[in-house]
Structure formats: C-alpha cells, structure tokens
C-alpha cells in the first residue's frame, strides 16, 4: 500500500521510500516515539507565553515585544500551518504601533518539547524576518541548531498521524 506523503513532498525519493517502508510495516510511530519518548509540560496559554517569551528574551532581545501567545484550535495543519505570527498595526497618537501575536496549533499541546520549540522558533523568526528566505532559516538555526531535523520529524509525525489516525503522546 502506498500512502500520499504530502508533508514530505520536498524531500528526496530515497527519503520518501524509507518513510513509505516504515508506514507499510506500521513502524513509523515506533521510530518517532523512540526518538521522542515523552510530551512536554507546556499545557496552557500562560505556560506557552512564558516559554516563547523565554526564547525571545534569550535570542531576540532587541526585537519587538510579543503581546500574545496561545494555543489555537482554529489552526489546522490542512492549511499548511503549524503556527501563525501576526502583526496587527494600530495608530497610537502620532505613531504606528504593531502588536505581535503567535498562535500554535492546539494539536501541539501534546507533543515533544522539540516540536514545540521548532514551531516557536519559526514563529519568533518572523518577528525579524518576514519571508522564508536564507536569512529567515539562518535565524531559525541560530535559535535552534537542530531546527531542520525537528521540522523533518514534525513532518514524519504528521504523516504518521494522517496514516494511522493515532496520536503518539
């Protein structure tokens, strides 16, 4: 049986064949769980705000403040979004002010901390870099050196979730 590997379209044929083989053997979930055995403890919006703010304070001290961070049940992976960064502009007095919000898909409330960190780093990078270009990914890997591995593993998890329908954590 061959599954559609929509989350892995940009990867090599060899990589996709390896993932397909694990899916066919019903082993992909086991491989992911072995690499990431437990879920994080960030369970509510306040804890998520504190977590993201800690990353911002460590890596982006001079960046604009983050006004709101929350888990959002309206974000669906189907729309190719794991999280969203929005900047809402308002005129305050004679100045233009932007409020930055980060929203993370609720499905990542139950996942390894590495997955949550990858999403948080990605959305924080948008505070400084709007486009997904070389500078953006350089900033992501500055904040999280294993960014690309975690992104790939999130894609594996999404593939497993779509294939089996079962959450791993």
From TrEMBL:
Alphabetized InterPro entries for the sequence: UTP_pyrophosphatase-like (IPR053136), YgjP-like_metallopeptidase (IPR002725)
YgjP-like metallopeptidase domain residues: 95-150
Record Pfam families: YgjP-like
Protein's name according to its UniProt entry: M48 family metallopeptidase
Organism: Pseudoduganella umbonata
């Amino acid at each position: 049986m061959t599954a559609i590997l929509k989350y892995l379209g940009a990867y090599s044929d060899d990589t996709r064949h390896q993932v397909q083989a694990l899916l066919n053997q019903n082993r992909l979930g086991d491989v992911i769980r072995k690499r990431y055995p437990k879920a994080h403890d960030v369970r509510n919006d306040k804890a998520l705000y504190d977590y993201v703010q800690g990353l911002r304070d460590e890596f982006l001290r001079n960046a604009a403040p983050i006004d709101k961070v929350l888990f959002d049940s309206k974000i669906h992976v189907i729309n190719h979004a794991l999280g969203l960064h929005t900047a809402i502009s308002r005129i305050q007095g004679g100045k233009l002010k932007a409020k930055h919000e980060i929203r993370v898909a609720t499905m990542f409330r139950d996942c390894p901390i590495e997955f949550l960190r990858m999403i948080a780093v990605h959305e924080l990078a948008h505070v400084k870099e709007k486009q997904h270009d070389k500078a953006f990914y350089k900033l992501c890997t500055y904040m999280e050196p294993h960014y690309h591995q975690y992104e790939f593993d999130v894609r594996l998890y999404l593939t497993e979730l779509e294939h089996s329908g079962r959450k791993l954590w």
